[in-house]
C-alpha cells in the first residue's frame, strides 16, 4: 500500500507523541485508550517514586549499614522491581506499537474503533487467548520465574555463612563464585565428584527402570497372559503412599546392623545350596549404597513405564506382527523391528522427563542415607547428587547460598538444554499441525 | 504344542513372582502395623506372635486423622481443580494462537517444568512470607505455579489433535470464544483432563516438602502429620505403619473405582 506524505507524517507524529504514553492515542482520536495508557504511565511513575527508586538502588548497593539494611530483602524487593519494570516496558512497547498501527490504518482510510464499546469488543476478540493464559502465567511468574531470578542474582553475590543479613551485608562479587567452583581445588574436586556421580546415577537408575518397565510390559502384554489388568493395578499401588515413607521404609530395611535385608533376607538365602553371602554394609560402604539406591529406584520407577508402554503396545496393529511372522521373522526380530521403534516413537519425550526427573531426584538420595556415607568435601556426601548437595548447601549449619545458586544455574542449563534438544527432535514440540 | 503351553505357564509364574516381590513392602507395612514396637525390631518379615490393634487407635489420635484428612482433601481438590481449569485454558490459548509470542510463552512454560524445586524454595518462601501468604491459599497458588507447566505441556499435545474446523464451525453458528472453549473444546479434552488430574492428585496428596515449608500445625496435611512419627532419635515405626495403613485406605478405595481411568489416562497422555 502506497502512503502519501501526509500519512507518513501522521504515523511519525503518533509514534513520537506516544513517548509519553497515551498522547499518541489522543492524536489518533481514541481518547479512551489514551486515558488507559496515561493512567498506567502515572501509576508507574508514582510506584517508581515511592518504592521503585529505593528498591533499584537497594538492588544496586545491597545495603550500606550493617545491622540496619537487610541485604536479602533488598535483593528480593529489587528483583520484584525488575519484574515490574519489565512488565511496564512491555506495556510501553505495546503503547507505541498501537499508536503507530492505528495511525497507519487511519492514513490508508480504514475506519478504526473510536467508541469505548467497540474497543472493548476488539480487545475481547483478539486479546482473549492471552487473557485465558493469564492466571496460569501469573502463578508461574510468582512461584517459579521470580525465585529463579533471585537465585540467578544470588549466584553473583557473596551470600554465605560469613555474610548473613541483617548482621552483615551481602555484596556483589561478579563471577567469583563460578571461578571458585571451577578453579579452587577444594570446590572443583567436590563439584566434579558430585557431578560425575549424578550423571552415573541418572543413567543407571533411569535406564534400569525403563528396561524393567519395557520388559515386563512386553512380557505381560502377550495375548495369552491372563489377568493383564490385575498386574496393572498391582504395579500402580505404591502411588498411594507418600514417596518419603516408601524410601524411609527401604532405608530402614537396608540398615547395616538391624535392617531386615541383613538380619533376615540374607540368612534366609544362605539356606539355599551354593549361596553364602556375608552381611553387606549397605549404609557405610559408598559402593553398596549406590547399588542399593539404583536398585530401589529401578523398583520404584518401573511401574509408570510399564503402564505407559502397555498403552503403546495395545495401539500397535496386530497384522504387523502377523505379516512379520509370515515373512519368517522370529520373536526377537519382531521385537527389534516393530515393537521397539513404536515405543520410542511415542515415549521418547516421557523417557527424557524420567531422566531429568532422576537427575533431580532429591527424595531418593536424601531420604535413603542423607547423601552419605562419608564426604567428598564442601559438605557433599559420597552419594549426593547435585540437587541434594544444593539442599545441604542452603539448609545446613554453614549455608553457602551463592555456591548453591551457581550450581543451580549450571544444572538448569544442562537439564533444560538437553530436554529441549530432544523435545525439538520429537514431535512433542511441533507448533504447526 | 505341549512345550508352548509349558512356556506360557513359566511366564505366568514369573509375572506372579514379580508382582509378589512388588507387593512385599505392602505386606511388611500391614504385618508390622499390628506388631508391638519391640517385635518390629526383632522380626520384620514374620507374622506377629500377638496381634495388637492399639497401634491403629493410637495412630488415629496422633495423626488427628479426621482433621488432617480434611486439610489434605481441601488442598488437593482446590489445587487440582484450579490446575485443570487454568492449564486447559492456557494451553488452548497458546495452541490456537500461532504467533511468535505464544510460542515463546509455551517455551517458558516447558522450561519451567524442568526447574528443580529445591533450588528455588528459599526465595519462594521468603517472597510468600513477605506478602503474608504462607497459608493454604498461598500453597494452592504455588501448586498452580508448579503444576501448570507439565499440565499445559500435556494439554498442548492433545489439543493439536482437536481439529480447528470445530472452532470455525462453532464461530459460524454464533458461539463466542468463551462458549467454544467451555461447551466444545473442554469436553473433548476429558481424557487428558483425567490424566492431568491423576498425575497432580498423586503429587499433591503425597507431597511433603512444600507443605512443610508453608503450612502451620493447624492446617497440616496427612504427610506432615506422618513425619512426626519419625523423630530425630525415636522412629516410631509401629505407629507410622499403622497410620500409613489408615491413610492409604481412602486412596485405595478411590483407586479401585478409578483404576480404569488411571491406566487409560497414563497411556493416553502419551499416545495421543
From TrEMBL, chain A:
GO terms for biological process: maltodextrin transmembrane transport. It holds the Pfam family BPD_transp_1. It is a multi-pass membrane protein. Residues 195-422 form the ABC transmembrane type-1 domain. One of its GO terms (molecular function) is ABC-type maltose transporter activity. This is Maltose/maltodextrin transport system permease protein. PANTHER family: MALTOSE/MALTODEXTRIN TRANSPORT SYSTEM PERMEASE PROTEIN MALF, MALTOSE_MALTODEXTRIN TRANSPORT SYSTEM PERMEASE PROTEIN MALF. The chain crosses the membrane at residues 35-60, 72-94, 130-156, 194-218, 230-250, 291-316, 337-357, 401-423. It is found in: Cell membrane. Part of the ABC transporter complex MalEFGK involved in maltose/maltodextrin import. Probably responsible for the translocation of the substrate across the membrane. Its main location: membrane. One of its GO terms (cellular component) is maltose transport complex. It comes from Perspicuibacillus lycopersici.
Automatic annotation (TrEMBL), chain B:
Keywords: Cell membrane, Membrane, Transmembrane, Transmembrane helix, Transport. The chain crosses the membrane at residues 7-30, 69-94, 106-128, 140-159, 180-205, 237-258. It is a multi-pass membrane protein. Its main location: membrane. One of its GO terms (cellular component) is plasma membrane. This is Carbohydrate ABC transporter permease. PROSITE patterns: ABC_TM1 (PS50928). The keyword Metal-binding does not apply. It is found in: Cell membrane. GO terms for biological process: transmembrane transport. It holds the Pfam family BPD_transp_1. Gene3D superfamilies: MetI-like. Residues 69-258 form the ABC transmembrane type-1 domain. The keyword Transmembrane helix applies. Belongs to the binding-protein-dependent transport system permease family. It comes from Perspicuibacillus lycopersici.
